[in-house]
Amino acid sequence: MRVLVLSASIGMGHVRAGDAIEKEVRKIAQSVRHEDVLNFANAPFRNFYRKAYFDLVAHAPELLGFAYEYSDKEWKNLHYGRAFERLNIQKLIGMVEEFQPDVVISTHSLPADMISWLLCKKKIICKNIVVLTDFDVHPVWLCHHHSLYCVPLEETKEHLVALGLERQRVIVTGIPIDPVFAQMKDKRQMRIKHDLEPDRRSILISAGGLGMGPIEELLCELMKLSGQNQIITVCGSNSELKAAAEAFAEKVSRTDGNLIKVVGHTDVMDEYMSASDIILGKPGGLTSSEALAKGLVFVIVSPVPGQEERNADHLLEEGVAIRCNNLPVLAYKIEQLFDNSQRLQTMSLNALTLAKPNAAEQIAAQAISLIREDGIHSTFPRNHLCEG
Predict the structure, then answer these.
(1) Contact residues for 118 (Cβ-Cβ < 8 A; gap 6+)
(2) pTM exceeds 0.85, yes or no
(3) Which domains can be identified in the chain, with CATH numbers?
(4) Other C-beta atoms within 10 Å of 336: how many?
(5) Ranges of the chain whose pLDDT falls below 50
(6) What angle do CA 335, 224, 292 make, to 5 degrees?
(7) Which site among 2, 171, 185, 247 is 20 to 30 Å from 223 CA-CA?
């Protein structure tokens, strides 16, 4: 069995989801390969994709939100019109044709569309599994030739079925996260391990894998909290953000009783989450799913318009998050949360109930089952035209 996992480094969540699936597939399949599709693109195309997303999130999130809403069209009107993308990822097509996978699992819409197109043109024969990495579905994820959709929520499944997808081709798995997040670790032990005070209230600020967000403003507002607090600030791969947070922490440590621990890129995010009482930041699909697995209540601040706004809606509706739209009241809202221990405990239990920490394992099992079920040949949904 040959399994190909495809992600795209537009943000880090898609790659992390691919890594999680790869780990689980390796336990049950002989030949597994995980690739970032942008590594097969020419340099201008690759840099444009990555930089455009980063710049929009950092400097023009409203424009990103506008594009998200504008392109939210009825999917039957969509065509295989991504010729520009396909022209710039010819190396990817060559790799797929050479590897000849039995099943391809995509954690980003770009490779999902590419594989659908290759199937349409009969250039490859394989199963095509599409894994959504946000709670809501957007038409960009929809492709005509697919074997299975793996989605986060029952509502997401019903949305796809309402759009015309066959019910048996959509399963609720959750968003794939590293299996380590399924391991329950003692809060006190994790605090001691990472040089944190074992008895202080602990707030985790997550800037995501790319390290984005108003970290200094958040830290300023959190200094207004009463009592003894410790703030774990994870800055991802953004060295400038980390340096700014460290400078702020050094200045505050001389005048304030609150402790600030600044972390850059880390491979033990699950342990920092285990050490925390709440998480503060943007509700990306992967970060949200990881937090749910740890039973963390999410304090949502500055979600990116579009998919993060919709993720926020789901978290709020499920009773696992609060939202702060105005930073000057951030400390007040957190104090209200900490002061109501019953509410905090209920929200934490809601998070654990909603969590699906074994999503990657389930997706891997589904992939192997599809291959064994009827070989690699499969029928695709009726009335899906091959265009472009």
Answers:
(1) 93, 96, 97, 124
(2) yes
(3) 2-177+357-374 (3.40.50.2000), 180-354 (3.40.50.2000)
(4) 12
(5) 80-81, 375-385, 387-388
(6) 45
(7) 185
